[in-house]
Amino acid sequence: MKRRHFIKNAALTSAGLAVGSTLASCAENTKESSVTKVTDDISKAKLPLVIATWHVKDATAKAMEVLQAGGNALDAVEQGCRVEEANEKGQSVGKGGLPDRDGNVTLDACIMDKHGNCGAVVYLQDITHAVSVARKVMEDTPHVMLAGEGAKQYAISQGFKPEDLLTEASKEAWNKWKIEAKYKPIINIENHDTIGMLAIDKNGDISGACTTSGLAYKMGGRVGDSPIIGSGLFVDNEIGACVATGLGEEVVKTVGSFLVVELIRQGKSPQDACEEAISRIVNKPNSDYKNFQVGYIAVNKKGETGSYSIHQWFSMTKFQDGVNEQIQSDYFNKA
Ligand code: SD4
After folding, report:
1. Within 6 Å (CB) of ligand 1, which residues are found?
2. Quick check: is 25 in a domain?
3. Ligand 1: which residue has its CA nearest to atom 6?
């Protein structure tokens, strides 16, 4: 608005025009500098870089292997997430995930590339690698999201093999749960939860992915934040990226990952942006935050990272400059 006014006024005199062009270019520069603030010294960042929610060093190692071999960030996050999807011991992702209250394992996943393209699957059953189906949706269909039976049939048509995702261990846990059948979100279910992964490749391009079996013993048909672009994941290759874990309903209500990236755009560090997004949740009137967990991890274009959660024991795994480490996250609820 200001700039339009200015150009209109400047057009009135030639002197105005001269000054106008200087000021207009100042205005452009100011606009430019606020947007490129995080990109200006990308050359200093130690790239490539991978971060992921929770303690998933095998997954970040796989992603880094892809990046070191010259692969792009999109391949890295897909391959990294696949490690945990195939890990039957992880009861919150892919095969071996805990089922809904009816005993069905249903997966949610999404992926987003450096161009802002995205793909997602929700309520997917019998297919382990939901993240790869999400990528197929992004690359080979005119849509961004497929659900349920349609997603499954699409996956099968693309060569994915259907299999039973309910392992003996998860069936046993479900049978125990059925004795009382009380639904209650569990904070930090096993220090290894939904996997969200963000990577910056050697070219400085960012991609992200998120994959989960969602909340254990959820209602049949329930979909969380993880496959919802802007909630569970958001990537803006000019600015940075964010991915979420925890009680998806609370993340969706604040469009958490998009919020974090927009806060970075406005000049916040990834750490401050994650903290602000958590404060939006806990500071709601009547927030029940003492009874649920939400955690965010984020990266900016400079390769700076941040992570923050409501409760203690959330962590981020970070692989950069030859070091693959689990970093405990700072948290809000210190009372
Ligand atoms: C969901 N955000 O479905 C996922 C699950 C999760 O800790 O991250 N649980 O709500």
Report:
1. 193-194, 212, 214-215, 224-226, 245-248
2. no
3. 246
Mean pLDDT across the stretch 215-224? Answer: 93
Q: Give the nearest ligand 1 atom to 245 CA.
A: 8
Q: Which of 233, 196, 231, 189 is nearest to 211 (CA)?
A: 196
Give yes or no for residue 131 having a pLDDT over 90: yes
The answer to whether residues 54 and 45 touch, using CB atoms and an 8 Å cutoff, is no
The answer to whether the predicted template modeling score (pTM) of the entire model surpasses 0.90 is no
The tally of domains found in the chain comes to 1
pLDDT, position 206? 98
User: Tens digit of pLDDT for each residue in 70-81?
Assistant: 999 999 999 999
For residue 288, being part of any structural domain is answered with yes
Where b means 16+ CB within 10 Å and e means fewer, 191-223 reads: ebbbbbbbbbbeebbbbbbbbbbbbbbbeeebb
Q: If you measure from the C-alpha of residue 192 to the centroid of ligand 1, how many angstroms do you get, rounded to a whole number?
A: 11
CATH number for the domain including 92? 3.60.20.30
Does 194 participate in catalysis according to the annotation?
A: yes
- Strand duo 305-309 + 330-331: pairing: parallel
> How do 118-124 and 145-147 pair as beta strands?
parallel
Question: What is the domain range of residue 205?
Answer: 3-13+45-331
Report percent pLDDT > 70 for the chain: 84
**Counting atoms of ligand 1 from 1, which one is nearest the CA of 247?**
10
Quick one: pLDDT at residue 16? Answer: 32
CA–CA gap between residue 318 and residue 324 (Å, rounded): 6
Helices (H) and strands (E) in the chain, counts: 10, 13
The reply to whether 40 falls in a domain is no
